[in-house]
Design goal:
The structure is a single chain. With about 130 residues, the protein is mostly helical. It has a single domain, classed as de novo design (two linked rop proteins) (Up-down Bundle), CATH 1.20.1440. The protein contains 4 helices and no strands. Helix 3 runs antiparallel to helix 4. The two termini are about 20 Å apart.
Length: about 130
């Protein structure tokens, strides 16, 4: 953790960004774009994954970072649930569904692992350094 200078270097943030872009691509290339409520929900929750990782990192404290990672993890689950609705409404095919679903599962596991790492780490955050 000490060598990471900005949130853009975090593997979990990069994957969250990829999921967010995948969702946006669905919004502009599939009938999901016309289902305004679902489109806005999944677009928002996918963005929330990457945004909460970034915000938590920028808070410069371990406890806050863990809390924001937990929110990001929840948003990842929300995105996956909404993805099922997208699939059930036949806006995407099985292959695309599985591809994005798998990314959300991997993302959730990576966020969980990072939370576990922080729980065990002596890192407290730059705002607590003297």
């Amino acid at each position: 953790m000490a060598t990471i200078k900005q949130f853009e270097d975090l593997e979990i943030w990069k994957l969250a960004r990829e999921i967010c872009q995948d969702v946006y691509d669905l919004c502009i290339t599939t009938p999901l774009g016309s289902d305004y409520k679902l489109r806005d929900q999944i677009n928002g929750s996918s963005g929330s994954i990457m945004d909460n990782i970034a915000e938590g990192f920028e808070r410069d404290g371990k406890k806050e970072f863990r809390q924001f990672l937990s929110i990001a993890k929840g948003s990842c689950g929300e995105t996956r649930s909404q993805l099922y609705r997208v699939f059930d409404r036949k806006y995407i095919n099985q292959e695309k569904f599985e591809e994005i679903k798998e990314k959300t599962i991997i993302s959730n596991k990576k966020i969980s692992s990072f939370i576990s790492y922080l729980n065990k780490s002596e890192y407290v955050g730059t705002k607590y350094k003297k």
